[in-house]
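Protocol step 4 of 5: obtain the predicted structure for the target chain.
Materials: sequence only (see below). No template structures provided, no constraints applied. The aim of this step is simply to have a reference model before the mutagenesis design in step 5. Sequence pasted as it appears in the construct record:
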Amino acid sequence: MRGYHPGEREAQARAGVAAAAARLEGLPKADIPPAARDFVAAQTLAIVASTAPDGRIWASPLVGAAGFLAADAHTLTVHSRSAAGDPLPANVRHDPVVGLLVIDPAGRRRMRLNGRARLRPSGDLEISAEQVYANCPKYIRRREPDLVAVAENGAPRHTASLSEWARALIARADTLYVATRHPDGGADASHRGGEPGFVQLASGVDGVELLRIPDYAGNNMFNTIGNLLVEPRAGLLIPDFEAGAVLMLSGAAQVRWSPDARTIDFQVTAALELPGALGHRWRSL
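Step 4 output (C-alpha cells):
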C-alpha cells in the first residue's frame, strides 16, 4: 500500500476534491481479500498495463473462460495467453511493473490490482499484488459475452497512424481502457466510458492525430490523471465488442483543464490492430 503521489495530489487539488480524496487514501491494500478472489475467478476479461523496451506504454486484453484468473491472498495468476502480436509477454520480461483491471461489464463491477509480474515456464502470468482496490460502476456499459468464439481473421497490423477501420471504431466507441505509469508509484489500467462518440478525433501540432477523451467525475482519487501529470506516456485499448477485435494505441497524453471539465488529449504514435483478440463477441444488455 502507498499514499497518493504528488501528481495525484495535484490533480485532486485542481479539481477541488482533496478532502474527499483524503478519505480514500487508505483504500488500496497489499493483499487480495476473499471477496476479491471470488470476483476475479468469475470474470472473463481483464486489461493489463505494461511498458515496452522502447518505453512505450500499452494496454493489453486478457481473456478466457471463468476461472482463467485465480488469486490467493497475495498473488493473481492468469491462465491464458496473450493474443498473437500483443507485446505484453516481451514487455513483462523487460519490466515487471504492471497494472491490472479486472472488469465485469454485465454486473458493472471492476477491480484494480497493481504489482509486479513474471511469466511462468508454463506461459501463465503471475502478478504479485501491491495495490488492490475496487472501483465504482460509473460509465460501464452493460454487456455479456456471446458463447460463439471468433476467429482471428487476419494478422496483427502495426501502423504509425490510424487506419479507416480504427477511425470508424473510435467514432462509435462507448468504452476504452487507459494504461498509465508513475516513475515510483507503479503502473495502472483504468476504464473510460460514455455515449457512442464520446471520444473525438482531432488534429494536433503538425497534423498529428489526437483522441480527445472527456474525463468525467469519478472516485476522486485521480490515479490516471495524476500519473499523466507526472508521466505523459500512455496507452489506450479500444475494443470492438461486435467483432471481438481490439485497437491498441500508444503515445503521449496531455490533460487539459477548464473550470467545469477536464479532457485528455492523446497523441497517437503507434497503433496495433488485433483481430479476434477478445476471443468472442459481446452483446449489449
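Step 4 remarks: The chain has a mean pLDDT of 92. Residues 83 and 277 are 5 Å apart (CA to CA).
Proceed to step 5.
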